[in-house]
Design goal:
Helices cover 30% and strands 25% of the residues. The chain has a five-stranded mixed beta barrel. It is globular and about 55 Å long. The relative contact order is 0.21.
């Protein structure tokens, strides 16, 4: 495949995005961290050659470059999803572009449904592992088309430990669990929630895992968190709207922002 993300990275470099240290991907309704960044350059996805752009209203679709606690960061205010009609190559294109710009540390966030019966909406979960239920994979960028993932740690253990320590210091409950990534865009049925709980999922969403896999292939150090926005108890299931999901995400965003900002400060 043609690595057009290399050309996109060069285009961004020519416009002043040089040597970013940390990449950040912000999910549905999660934007307060961008207010902490001393933004030097802001570019809409629609202006970037080859870059997929968000079609979902809750994803702002802007790339922000600047400083946060003295670190050079490149933040995506919103992501794209497979269900928007993009190929998986397009979904992971931004992560590969970040890598081409020199980023080695990637922080991802998302809004997800809470499957664990003892957890509540509004809480935050550290993703310790994932279940990939997406129907496609991005093309490998190397000649290796099959990877034995048995011993691969997609998420950096040291970063996870640091996040847990920061959460404890902030007296913030940070759950630890497994995230299931499904195609979407429909929310799941009672039977599907039972299935997901049976196979070991604590939360479910429609993103993140393809990006994590792409980052892992490139050797990037990755950490990811989910804001639990709705409770998915199959025996007591209540209808939920996108507006309600965004409202819960917004209410939890303050705590998520404090957590990630402190994490970046201590890197």
């Amino acid at each position: 495949m043609t690595n057009t993300w290399l050309a996109t990275a060069e285009w961004l470099r020519e416009r002043g995005i040089v040597n970013p240290q940390i990449g950040i991907v912000l999910g549905t309704g999660l934007h307060q961290l961008t207010e902490k960044i001393d933004v030097e350059i802001e570019i809409s996805y629609t202006e970037i050659p080859g870059f997929p752009f968000s079609t979902i209203e809750s994803h702002r679709g802007k790339l922000l470059y600047g400083k946060l606690h003295g670190k050079s960061v490149l933040a995506m205010a919103g992501r794209v999803h497979f269900y928007e009609g993009y190929s998986m190559n397009e979904v992971v294109f931004p992560v590969r572009t970040m890598y081409a710009l020199g980023i080695q540390t990637l922080i991802l966030s998302n809004a997800s449904g809470c499957i664990h019966p003892m957890w509540k909406k509004g809480e935050i979960m550290l993703i310790k592992d994932h279940i990939n239920l997406q129907p496609q994979q991005a093309d490998a960028i190397s000649d290796v088309t099959f990877v034995n993932r048995k011993n691969i740690k997609h998420y950096d253990v040291n970063y996870q430990t640091l996040l847990l320590e920061i959460a404890q210091s902030q007296q913030l409950i940070l759950r630890e669990g497994t995230y299931a990534s499904v195609p979407g865009p429909l929310l799941e049925t009672r039977a599907e929630y039972r299935y997901l709980r049976t196979i070991g999922a604590d939360a479910v969403g429609m993103s993140t895992v393809p990006e994590v896999i792409a980052a892992n292939e490139l050797g990037m150090k990755t950490v990811a968190v989910s804001v639990l926005t709705d409770e998915c108890d199959p025996d007591n299931l209540k209808s939920v709207t996108l507006a309600e999901i965004i409202e819960i995400a917004n209410s939890a965003d303050y705590h998520l922002t404090r957590l990630i900002a402190a994490f970046i400060q201590q890197l």
